[in-house]
UniProtKB/TrEMBL annotation:
The keyword Transcription regulation does not apply. It is found in: Cytoplasm. The gene is ureD. It comes from Streptomyces virginiae. The keyword Transcription regulation does not apply. This is Urease accessory protein UreD.
Length: 268
């Protein structure tokens, strides 16, 4: 076998660098004593998990702690949580997540997968996601609930830091309850997003947005009414035991104030 020449090496296709891959896994189960145990609590890379004290004895608290800067372009981060029958989990993050540009220009991905079995509940209340100039992030949140499960899910996005244009952000939320679609929606904003994203029919110049989804079997008997919380905040009952609150604001502080008020009204 002849040795490769310098020309052969120069013409050989280069392998593009691969970004970071990391998954955080959580499994919560009822402990038989009115509480919730965590037989699986495992983080990787920038996704470190810490058990925290919860406001309820029945609920296990978990904090997602960023151990390094991520996601950068090309990274793929995943958070997976499975909550067994009768178990209760409160999941939060310690700080805002910054979507940062990478060296290759490849998009980053951040996936959240939640599975709730009969009688389970999850409160997923992360800090805001900040889309930094030059970044390209694709977020996908997928939730599967048993018909008797409960969920409080908050999402907040900030488009750019102070005085900064945002990166490209694509975010999709897909939720199933009892095997039937409850909500499936997608947001795209920033340079490269479909035209009109920042116009009157889109974000209307706002740079902070958020939503709160509450799923509760009790809503099947007593559904929340549609309402307006402010000039750019609305409460929308869904075709199922759920309500969706959407908010636009000039800054993240105002978004949080409105979502916190909605959580006190519709959550637990």
């Amino acid at each position: 076998m002849s040795a490769a020449t310098a020309e052969d090496i120069a013409q050989a296709p280069s392998t593009p660098p691969v970004g970071l891959r990391a998954t955080a896994r959580i499994h919560a189960v009822a402990d038989g004593r009115g509480g919730t145990a965590l037989p699986l609590l495992a983080g990787e890379g920038p996704l470190a998990l810490r058990r925290t004290r919860s406001s309820s004895q029945a609920e296990a608290g978990v904090m997602l702690v960023g151990a390094m800067s991520a996601p950068l372009g090309g990274d793929h981060l995943t958070v997976e949580a499975t909550v067994g029958p009768g178990a209760h989990l409160s999941l939060a993050s310690a700080a805002a997540t910054l979507a940062l540009p990478g060296r290759t220009g490849a998009p980053a991905r951040y996936d959240v997968h939640l599975t709730l079995e009969d009688g389970a509940s999850v409160r997923w209340l992360p800090e805001p996601l900040v889309s930094v100039r030059g970044s390209d992030l694709r977020v996908r949140t997928r939730v599967r609930l048993a018909p008797t499960a409960r969920l409080v899910l908050r999402e907040e996005q900030v488009l750019g830091r102070t005085g900064e244009v945002p990166g490209l952000l694509r975010s999709r939320l897909a939720v199933e309850c009892g095997g039937r679609p409850l909500v499936d929606q997608e947001l795209a904003c920033g340079p490269g997003a479909p035209g009109g994203w920042d116009g009157p029919a889109g974000l209307a110049g706002h740079r902070a947005l958020g939503q709160l989804l509450v799923v509760d079997p009790a809503f099947a008997e007593d559904a929340p009414a549609a309402a307006v919380l402010g000039e750019f905040a609305a409460v929308t009952p869904l075709a199922g035991p759920a309500v969706l609150v959407t908010v636009l604001a000039a800054d993240a502080l105002r978004v949080r104030e409105l979502l916190d008020a909605a959580c006190r009204t519709y959550g637990w």
